[in-house]
Amino acid sequence: MNVGILGTGNLAVTLGRAWAASGHSLLVTGRSAPHADEAAGRIGPSAKAVGPADFAGGADAVVVAVSWEGLEAALRLVGGSDRALAGKTVIDCTNPVDYGTGELKPASGSAAQLVARSAPGAHVVKALHLFAGASWPYPGPRGTAPVVAICGDEHAALDLTVKLIGDLGGRAAVIGGLDSARQLEETAGFVMRVVASGHNPRFAVPDVDPAPVSEGRTAAH
């Protein structure tokens, strides 16, 4: 699969390396051609830097790994407003959080919904914003792999995202439609606030075995 990465920072490079190791090809683009070349070089021979105009047409799926402040401009750069991403799975990794306070920057809605508005026709999935790039690839047993909560409105796009997360070594949990994205993005702010208080966020949520819950739902039906 040709995975297009919109962004040239550390997250883009780390995800690209992990997917390259799983057999995918990567197309990398951004505002700066030299930065795109550098990022592709850091990913390895499976990656190629391309110009923004050539990006959407060559990508089977697109991963958005840019800052909140540059999100709309980045999507315009690759023709999102002209429907260049229509019909494609677009995975939004944007973290629209104030890193000092943990507060979500959009007053309403979510970054993922902004992506959907800025790229009409794209099949947007919110994913991979919560775990730092250093989490990937995960080489350990599946039972202890990171669980990546995702949301989106198109089943095929969700299925493709689940596969790509699996190729990173993670497990995906589909929690709802794209209107759930704000809750996912706020979770990143919660994690930051727990860390700022001097605690590990792993211990800030209950340890719940999902099996009895699932059994109860089955019995109710």
Could you give a short description of this structure?
By secondary structure, the chain is of the alpha/beta class. It contains 8 helices and 8 strands; from the N terminus they run βαβαβαβαβαββαβαα. The N and C termini lie far apart (39 Å).
How would you describe the overall organization of this protein?
Helices cover 39% and strands 17% of the residues. With 221 residues, it is of the alpha/beta class. The protein contains 8 helices and 8 strands; from the N terminus they run E-H-E-H-E-H-E-H-E-H-E-E-H-E-H-H. The chain has an 8-stranded mixed beta sheet with strand order 3-2-1-4-5-6-7-8, with helices on both faces. Helix 1 (10-21) packs parallel to helix 2 (33-43).
Question: What's the SSE blueprint?
Answer:
Elements: E1 2-6, H1 10-21, E2 25-29, H2 33-43, E3 47-49, H3 52-58, E4 61-64, H4 71-77, E5 89-92, H5 111-118, E6 123-126, E7 147-152, H6 155-168, E8 171-176, H7 181-196, H8 210-220
Parallel strand pairs: 1-2, 1-4, 2-3, 4-5, 5-6, 7-8
Antiparallel strand pairs: 6-7
Helix pairs in contact: 1-2, 4-5
Classify the secondary structure makeup into a structural class: alpha/beta
The total strand number stands at: 8
* Cα gyration radius (Å): 17 Å
> Major β-sheet, in short?
8 strands, mixed
Helix fraction by DSSP (H/I, runs of at least 4): 25-40%
Strand content: 15-25%
Distance between the termini: 39 Å
